[in-house]
Amino acid sequence: MTRFTVNNQPVQYDMDPQTPLLWALRDASNLTGTKYGCGTGDCGACTVDIDGAARLACRETIGAIEGTFVTTIEGLSPDRSHPVQQAFLAANLVQCGYCIPGMVMAAAVLIRTNRNPSEEDIRQGIPNLCRCGIYPRLVAAIQDAARIARGDPADDQ
């Protein structure tokens, strides 16, 4: 039995400890917001927050993360009020939407650890791939999310 906390709820999985976290979340917990993209850790679609760090759920085994705290897109903010979610919506960033949960999670970790990220900080901190090409608006949206998180007024006010 593998035990840890997912979205502030204790969970235990009666699965092989080598099972990727991605499949435990999606198949056993029905948390399907964490997406399967490549399975090799290259795309970032499965990014979750594990103990305050952006990690790839396809590369983490449930046995390796026993005792940790995992936050998925469903647990970040059920009402979409998180600053990253607000900024992504305001920037009309979502196109097909497949990569967005992983990007939101990576960005949430980034702005929690860096309250004023530069363009370079964002490019380094968000390695996620997007086939729709949202990158030109992504940097501005994450900087806006950081502004919202800091409580700074909007530039146009």
UniProtKB/TrEMBL annotation:
The lineage of its organism: Bacteria, Pseudomonadati, Pseudomonadota, Alphaproteobacteria, Sphingomonadales. It comes from Sphingomonas pokkalii. Residues 1-76 form the 2Fe-2S ferredoxin-type domain. Keywords: 2Fe-2S, Iron, Iron-sulfur, Metal-binding, Oxidoreductase. The keyword Oxidoreductase applies. GO terms for molecular function: 2 iron, 2 sulfur cluster binding; metal ion binding; oxidoreductase activity. This is Isoquinoline 1-oxidoreductase. The keyword Iron-sulfur applies. CDD domains: fer2. SUPFAM superfamilies: 2Fe-2S ferredoxin-like, CO dehydrogenase ISP C-domain like. It holds the Pfam family Fer2. PANTHER family: BLR6218 PROTEIN (PTHR44379:SF2), OXIDOREDUCTASE WITH IRON-SULFUR SUBUNIT (PTHR44379).
